[in-house]
Fold these 2 entries.
Entry 1:
Amino acid sequence: AQTVTQSQPEMSVQEAETVTLSCTYDTSESNYYLFWYKQPPSRQMILVIRQEAYKQQNATENRFSVNFQKAAKSFSLKISDSQLGDTAMYFCAFMKHGRYGGSQGNLIFGKGTKLSVKP
Amino acid sequence: DAMVIQNPRYQVTQFGKPVTLSCSQTLNHNVMYWYQQKSSQAPKLLFHYYDKDFNNEADTPDNFQSRRPNTSFCFLDIRSPGLGDAAMYLCATSRDRAGGTDTQYFGPGTRLTVL
C-alpha cells in the first residue's frame, strides 16, 4: 500500500520569502503521479503542481517548483516570493499510473501542511 | 468556465434524517469521485464512478450511497447520518486517458452539520 507523509504540520514564512514544504512517500510502483494541492481556508482545493514519476525534470509552475527525488521517494514543494494569498493548507498526494481500473484513480493524500504567509 | 459545482455549500441535517448532496460538472469528465474530509484531516475517498461503473472503497460505511444518473451529475446519499458523519464532502472529476487517469479537479465542497 502507498503512504504519503508530510512531516511539517504547520509552517510560516514572511511575505516575499521562499519556503519549502516536505513530502515523502512509500510505494513499490515504478510509475505514478505526484501532486501538490492547495486548500485555502473555507475555499476550494486546487491543483498547484503535478509531476509524472517517469520524467526526470522537476515540474515548475510560475512561483511554484518541486524537487523530485525518485530514489529517495521525496517530493518537496518550493514557493518563491511568497504572497499573502498563498496562505492555505497544502496537501501532497500520490496516484498510481496505468490504465484505469481498481484504485488507479485513487489519490492518496498526506495529512497536510498549514502554511501561513505573514506580512 | 468549465467547473465542478456542489450544492448546497452548507447542509444541516438532523441525526438519522436522510440527506443528499449534489455534484455537477461541465468538464465532460468520465470519472467522478466523492471524498470525505473531516476537520484538519486529509480527504478520504469514499467511492468513485468510472462512467456508470460504481467503485466503492472497502472501508466506506454502508450508510453512504451514490448515484450517477448521467455524465454531468453525481449524488451522495447518506441514509442515516450520525454525528460522526459531520464533515466536508468533496466532489472531484477526472478524465481517464489511455495510459492513466488524469488530474482530479475538485468542487468547493459541501459542509455537512449533523444536529
Note: The interface with chain B takes residues 33, 35, 37, 43-47, 50, 91, 95, 97-100, 102, 104-107, 109-112 of chain A (CB under 8 Å).
Entry 2:
Amino acid sequence: QVQLVESGGGLVKPGGSLRLSCAASGFTFSDYYMTWIRQAPGKGLEWVSYISTSGSTIYYADSVKGRFTISRDNAKNSLYLQMNSLRAEDTAVYFCANYEGDYWGQGTLVTVSS
Amino acid sequence: EIVLTQSPATLSLSPGERATLSCRASQSVSRYLAWYRQKPGQAPRLLIYDTSNRATGIPARFSGSGSGTDFTLTISSLEPEDFAVYYCHQRSGWPQTFGQGTKVEIK
C-alpha cells in the first residue's frame, strides 16, 4: 500500500540546520509532484514547498524562501527538505504529501529552541 | 497570496445532524478547491478535490459545491468520526494556501 514516511525531525537551536527526508513506497514516486506542508503546535496547516516530478519546477512559501530547499531523488523514491537558518516560528510537524493531497505521511516534529 | 477564510470557526452539532462549512477566497480559485478532515494526532485526509469530487473511499455523505470565491462542504448526517477539524485548500495559484480551519464539535 501507499506509504510516505518522514524522518529527520528533532530539536535544533535557532540559526541551526536540519534535513528532513520522506521515503515513498507503494506508488510510482517519479510520476508524482510532491509538497511539504507544516503545522505549528495547535495551529492550522501551512503549505511550505512544491517540487515537480523532475525537480525542474520548485515553489516556496514566502516564510521559508531563501532558507529552505526542496529536492528529490527519484532513484531512491525520496523527497527532502533542507532547512537552514531555522527560527522559533519554524517549530511544527512537517508532513510530506503528493500534490493532489491524497497521500500524506505521518509527519515529523521539528522544534527550534535554545 | 490568496487568503481563504473559513466559517464558522466552530460548529456545535449532534450526531445525525447536517453540517455546512463555508470557505471564501480573496480572489477566484476557479474550481481548484479541496477539503480535508483532520483528527487529533493524525495527518489530514483528503475528502473533496476540485470543488465537488469525492476522493477515493470517501462516503457519499460528504459533498462539495461552489465556484470562484465561495465554496461549501456539506456533511449530510454526522457520524462520530466526523467530529474533527476541517480545512479548505486552494491550488489555483502560488503559494498554495489553506483556510484557518473549522472545528466540528459534539453539542
Note: Chain B is about 0% helix and 50% strand.
